[in-house]
Amino acid sequence: MDxxxxxxxxxxxxxxxxxxxxxKGLSDVVLVDIIEGVPQGKALDxxxxxxxxxxxxxxxxANAYEATAGSxxxxxxAGIPRKPGMSRDDLIxxxxxxxxxxxxxxxxxxxxxxxxxxxxxLDAMCHVAxxxxxxxxxxxxGMAGVLDSARFRTFIAMELNVSVENTHAFVLGxxxxxxxxxxxxxxxxxxxxxxxxxxxxxxxxxxxxxNGGAEIVGLLKTGSAYYAPASASVEMAEAILKDxxxxxxxxxxxxGEYGYKDLFIGVPVKLGAGGVEEIxxxxxxxxxxxxxxxxxxxxEELKGVLAKL
Length: 309
Ligand code: APR
Fold this sequence. Notes:
This protein is 43% helix and 20% strand. It is of the alpha/beta class. The protein has 2 domains: 4-142, NAD(P)-binding Rossmann-like Domain (Rossmann fold, 3-Layer(aba) Sandwich), CATH 3.40.50; 145-308, Alpha-Beta Complex (L-2-Hydroxyisocaproate Dehydrogenase, Chain A, domain 2). The chain has a 6-stranded parallel β-sheet with strand order 3-2-1-4-5-6, sandwiched between helices. A 3-stranded antiparallel β-sheet has the order 7-10-11, covered by helices on one side. The longest helix has 23 residues, at 286-308.
């Protein structure tokens, strides 16, 4: 294949992302992990599924970064996931060290690649990767909004008994309890959900979305969600690899947009071959802006924690 994607972290999210990339025929995939044998074993296992799944993606596993050279995209999932009772923010000191180290290696071997960060706490890890890579801001982004919006879309479809394909949803802000689902911009076949549901039901779905990650952690008990996070990161990778100019909510570095400076936070962006090609500024009501301000303050606080590590 003429495209190459490295997935760092061959755990639940990383291996599932590798599987989806290969089975969609998007790229060759290099899986990297610190555990010896695991990325190699998972890559080989996925290769052996290829004749049945009918794709020609080459999958390789590695513990070092030489094999990642010349990647178009690196999806960074390395780190620890949360357990019941933990918030994403509890992962910050461990994951900041891991994300810094792996980003430096990726940047060394693929200086022109685009980074999609998945490790949590997401927005803070984008800051770590942005600094460690030295890449321009259009080539560093975080996966959160696509996942949070997919969760909101799922709950809307379940509530109204309609196809998920008819649902669109926007969730902005940081990837945490303060995320900002936007019902006004969330639609079923173009109709805003505010015309289809009572405010109470919308509030319940918004709340379930904001706590969607914790709901899965509570059920799994030993780790966090990975099927939907992997799908979300691959949707972003596909938009970039195919230069689709797709509008998706992603964590992007804001430099004045929405009134924030030097802050990674989830906003609608245009994703294409250049990475984040445009930050789309949509009008927010006073209440929506207040909620986004609260979310931005939570990310700022984590930036403060990073500065002290
Ligand atoms: N380099 C490469 N891989 C690493 C490193 C490192 N320095 N440190 C840890 N890893 C690997 C682990 O060995 C493990 O295989 O990262 C992988 C993480 O996989 P899981 O423990 O299964 O976690 P997962 O569910 O995939 O979540 C990964 O994504 O959604 C976020 O919050 C989640 O931060 C977490 C990350």
